[in-house]
Design a protein that fits this description.
2 domains; about 40% helix; TIM Barrel; 16 strands; binds zinc ion; globular; single chain; alpha/beta
């Protein structure tokens, strides 16, 4: 049988079935899909391919899914550090956004972010930002898979002035990209403290009608809980529950403040939780109880959050932080392991996004979103267990190749659809403009 690409690898870690590592296996790709995963010997007998690769020192894993970020904020990386969330937002990020955000900023920032994500093995990201049409356009052009958040916030911005306008523009973006196989959309109400009851009710209804997810920051800090109790007389999750938002459509980001009854409710209603450990640590927002969520069979995935609060978009680093932090918080080194951690960053992310039929594992019939890591390096030898090396000892240096929908976007560490030198030069131009010039004036 004639196929497009046959990739032989020393190890293949498919995520489905669980806890599995194949040795000397191959992935067969035709068009945008994986059509077989089998031993290299059998693959050579069964297929002839246009391109055949032998990666004798590499492990293949499913493309990593960054389940929460604000890609364009890569241009704000490092402008305000070492502050608590509300000071960071009110006195630095929101003034900077008010001054600089426009379609060009979003396009340039998104390109820079995609380059960084590809170089660290991310093949899909769940975004929340202004000018989502610009984000989607860049992803489609580069060949990056993304879930584009249709942002809603009760603040006038250059993108929209009122909740009506945010919703109308969001629906337009949804319609514009609905036939693009790499792009999906979700409503993205910013947070309980920035979106009104009326808007949230409408979002719950519209998400059903359009059959799309809802992506929202929830229970990020204890201040958020206190503010909600003062303003509404209830905790944010209770309020969202009454407004009809808690369901398997909801992608709840952060969730550092959870009581026992809330964990039970989240489990019962099938809400997915995105853990963003490095952002939570940097802003000292609190700790998501990942071990306890695992014990309750809640779908937990991993996100980097934006580059202004992390400050990188590196899912390999985020996986390591997530698993180490989970063990520390639970005071139990067995509450997380390397396979569970990779699953959080792949299949669980796909499930949260409603895309687990097509991405999240290396399985026949799924999209060919694949990452190759070269483990024949100083930092990853000797090698007793490949996934242990990936989770606990690798960084971006190990990522050599990345495919999305069967297309190779990173080849021997070189970006194919983006120009690194141009991205660096352009980011420097933004740096000169933004530097010392993001305050309220
Ligand atoms: Zn965020």
């Amino acid at each position: 049988m004639k196929i497009d690409t046959l990739i032989h690898a020393r190890w293949i870690i498919p995520v489905e079935p669980e806890n599995t590592v194949y040795e000397n296996y191959a992935l067969a790709i035709k068009n945008d899909k994986i059509i077989a995963l089998l031993s290299s010997d059998d693959a050579r007998k069964k297929f002839t391919s246009t391109e055949e690769l032998v990666l004798e020192h590499h492990a293949l894993i499913p493309g990593l899914i960054n389940a929460h970020t604000h890609a364009a904020m890569s241009l704000f990386r490092g402008i305000a550090n070492d502050l608590p969330l509300m000071d960071w937002l009110n006195n630095h990020i929101w003034p900077a956004e008010k001054k600089w955000i426009d379609p060009q900023f979003v396009k340039d920032g998104t390109k820079l972010a995609i380059a960084e994500m590809l170089r660290s093995g991310t093949t899909c990201f769940n975004d929340m930002y202004f000018f989502p049409d610009s984000t989607a356009e860049i992803c489609a052009g580069v060949g990056m898979r993304a879930m584009i958040g249709l942002i809603i916030i009760d603040l006038p911005t250059l993108w929209a002035n009122s909740s009506d306008e945010y919703l109308a523009k969001g629906e337009y973006v949804h319609d514009s990209f609905r036939h693009n196989p790499l792009i999906s959309t979700a409503f993205a109400p910013h947070a309980p403290y920035t979106v009104s009851d009326d808007s949230l009710k409408r979002i719950a209804v519209l998400a059903e009608e359009l059959d799309i997810q809802i992506h929202m920051h929830i229970h990020e800090t204890s201040d958020e809980i206190n503010q909600s109790i003062n303003q509404y007389g209830k905790r944010p999750l209770d309020r969202l529950s009454e407004l009809g938002l808690l369901s398997s459509r909801l992608i709840a980001v952060h969730m550092t403040q959870l009581e026992k009854n809330e964990i039970a409710k989240v489990r019962k209603l099938g809400v997915s939780i995105v853990h963003c450990p490095e952002s939570n640590l940097k802003l000292a927002s609190g700790f998501c109880p990942v071990g306890e969520l695992h014990d309750n069979n809640i779908n937990v995935c991993i996100g980097t959050d934006g580059a202004a609060s992390n400050n990188d978009l590196d899912m390999l680093g985020e996986m390591r932080t997530a698993t180490l932090l989970a063990k520390g918080i639970a005071n139990d080194s067995t509450c997380s392991d390397v396979h569970k951690t990779l699953k959080m960053a792949t299949l669980n992310g796909a499930k949260a996004l409603g895309l687990s039929e097509s991405i999240g594992s290396l399985k026949k019939g799924k999209q060919a979103d694949i990452v190759a890591l070269n483990l024949n390096q100083l930092e990853t030898t000797p090698l007793y267990e490949p996934l242990s090396q990936i989770i606990y000892a690798s960084d971006r240096q190990q990522v050599s190749d990345v495919w999305i929908a069967g297309k190779r976007l990173l080849k021997d560490k070189k970006l194919i659809t983006l120009n690194s030198e141009e991205l660096i030069e352009n980011a420097k131009l933004w740096q000169e403009k933004i530097k010392n010039n993001y305050s309220k004036n």
